[in-house]
Amino acid sequence: MSGIVQFKAAERRFDAYGEGGQIARLVGPEISSSMGAGIAKFDGCSIAWTVLYDELIVTLEGNFRLCVGETVYDCEPGDVLWVPANTPLRYEGEGATVFYALSPVDWRARAGL
C-alpha cells in the first residue's frame, strides 16, 4: 500500500491482549513491509511475553511498567523505552495507555507462528 493512512481515535477498536490487557493494532504487514505499530492498554495486569522484534514503547497516559527479570522500568506519560528483540519481559500498568512500534512487521512469519 502506498500513501498516508489516518487512524481516527473514535474508530479505534481494542481487542483483548493476555489477561487484562487490550490492544489496537494499527500498522501491520497489510500496510507496511517493514514496521508495525499500535496502541495498548494495561490496567491491573501482568502479561508475560518474549518480544521477537525490536520494540519502541511510548507511555501516553497512566503508569506503565516494563519488568525484565528483577529490573522494573516505571514509565509516566512522555517516557520512551526501546526493547531489543528476544527480551523476556512483563507488561504491567495502572490505567496505562502506550503507543508501540515494532520491527520487523513480519515477525510472526519469521518465527513460524
Task: Please render the helix and strand layout as text.
Blueprint: E1 15-17, E2 21-27, E3 36-42, E4 45-50, E5 54-68, E6 71-75, E7 80-83, E8 88-103, H1 107-111
Antiparallel strand pairs: 1-2, 2-3, 3-8, 4-8, 5-6, 5-7, 5-8
Q: Can you walk through the features of this model?
A:
This protein has 113 residues and is mainly beta. Helix content is 4%, strand content 56%. Strands 1, 2, 3, 4, 5, 6, 7 and 8 form an 8-stranded antiparallel β-sheet that branches. β5 (54-68) and β6 (71-75) form a beta hairpin. The longest helix is centred in the C-terminal third of the chain and has 5 residues, at 107-111.
Write the element-wise H/E pattern from the N-terminal end onward. EEEEEEEEH
DSSP helical segment count = 1
* Gap from first CA to last CA: 24 Å
Number of strands: 8
Radius of gyration: 14 Å
**Percent helix range:** under 10%
Oligomerization state of this entry? single chain
Choose one word for the global shape: globular
Query: What does the largest sheet look like?
Result: 8 strands, antiparallel
User: Which runs of at least 5 residues are low in confidence (pLDDT < 50)?
Assistant: none
Helix and strand content put the structural class at: mainly beta
- How much beta, percentage-wise? over 45%
Mean pLDDT across residues? 95
Summarize the structure.
This protein has one helix at 107-111, and strands spanning 15-17, 21-27, 36-42, 45-50, 54-68, 71-75, 80-83, 88-103. By secondary structure, the protein is mainly beta.
